[in-house]
Give the backbone structure.
Amino acid sequence: MRRCFVALLVPLLIASAALVGSAIASHNPPDRQISHGSAVGPDDGGAKNHLDQHGPSSGHLDASSDNVDIVGKLRLTSHEGDISDVSALQAENDRWYAYVGDWGAHCPTGGVRVADITNPAKPRRVGFIESPGFGYVTEGVQALHLDTPQFEGDVLVISNEWCRTSPNPENMPGGITLWDITNPEDPQLLVQAFGDFDVHGNRANESHSAIAWDAGNNAYVAAIDNEELEDVDLFDITDPRNPVLVSETRLPGVNVDAYGQEKTSHDFDVLQFPDGTWHLMVSDWDAGWIDVNVTIPAAPMVVGDFDYAECDQVVTTACPPEGNAHQGEWNSDGSLFIGTDEDFSPFRVPITVLDGPMEGEKIDAGEFGFTKQVASFPEEKVNGPTIFGGYGCPGDPVPSPSELGELGPDEEAMIVFQRGPVGDPNSPGEACFFSDKIRAGEEAGYDVAIVANHHSGAQGGETPDAFFCGGQGSPVLGTAAGLCIGHESMHELFDRPPDYTFPYPEGDPGDREPDVGDLGPTVEAQSEFDGWGYARLIENSTTEVGQFNIPETADPEKASGFGDLTVHEVEVPRGDPNEGGASPDDDKLAYFSWYSGGFRVIDITDPSSPEEVGHHIDVGGNNHWGVALAKDQNGDRIVLASDRDFGLYIYRYTGELPDGG
């Protein structure tokens, strides 16, 4: 998960039909964090070159296939984790083109790779749309046709993030970029890096994902705002050369009921319902999926709020479920939504305090997916004394483990860092990666590094126990376990009254924040298997009626050494003209990209009992990220999948369609 909150204390919204964001804006630098557990940065180990099918670092499942053929594939990278999302569109010349995001695993090489897939057996590269400066492209890749009074043609929508700071704001693109791809082999720039300029003024806030729709006389884009609590931005792109920000909202008032309590929008689907209204489904992480009526984008209204069950339905000992609502799609009439939970860590690690004023109390905690796993320690647990280490960013002093005193034979040395700095005048430096903090603990000699949330991550105290084990942004040594906890817990561990003031009070009056070197209690963190992320089938935007998971989801033996076994994205064919129009598989099948689980096809005709009817894992493994729908020369369905370590795969489902179709 990519984002982190720029802190601000947002006043209670005035009750009204419209959920428009607060006019008060934050003017503080964002807490830099890369999503999805892959390193992005200057060739520092996160961009290992490889010539095999799948990057060698994370392992994979054995090759297998059922009712799925590879029609063709196209190598687009030789770097691990370099490829992101994929979209496709048939151009005016009747040829089909794929648009594949380049995450820039070795900064800065981000952009969008364009391939002609008209003959899917022989796809060919035809272009590269380069991101400016240190920009890269993740999940905001969408090609569609627009027909408005101001523009008619094909448009590519890109959301923008960046991998390195720069004194030149043009090197740090945010917001959305729109290209005229009416001629895909000669794209024309319409607007670049336009968005919400609240935070920085001279550049738009970063955006992890975006989606556009043509509503007739007007066209719109919804984009994630990585840097504000008002994290859903809505733009009018009726004239795509001159987009206009029409509203922003934080989707207030919805339930946050999954483990971790992190509320953060991550991705979208958009659909016109049979009654003519337009709906935007927001994947809102631990708040689940939120159905927002955007018929009037200037006044978005929450009309549906999905809630997670009390306990997970696949790993029933996980109470509450892990959550992590990441992406999803409706069927053609909006009666069924399929959502994907992206959970990279198959363990949770609740902490028990063993001494001091909090003795016996339990603290909810998560585990970073890129660090040494607690399950690898004896008895699958760690325990030992704690010390506060401040922010733990490069150049910051880190106390020595010797300050903890002599450890017992079964104890580990533990250090607690704080996420950020963001909005802290006492630490005015740039925020650093979670992985920077963990590396600082490793290099100092600690066995466990715990990262506590900051004031903005706790949404100014609205979610005091929210914690976020974000993705890797720099190399770690792999010698320490990495855990994450809420901001309130950090205060209590070091006997400080909880505080969420933003900006942080200058000089720390009242000594509310722990000081570097403060000693905390002895704690124990026990690893508990809670499985990988999977798919949920939801009726009427609110009611979960079924789940779909691969067998490895609930298998502790597959918890490590086989790559990331969480689901990522789903495509539901529903007659969308941008995806080739009506097709026999409409509302019958769903197609998934499942990271190391490869490509999956399920029958969704009975949402309460979805059934896998096809899959494919290539020889040497896969690392599938995105999935998109297209058609071949005969007008028959093909499905594209982007592979992070390779490039583009083109599949065809060869089994029977449900209901004898």
Q: What stands out?
A: Residues 350 and 364 are 5 Å apart (CA to CA). Helices lie at 434-444, 487-493. The radius of gyration is 24 Å.
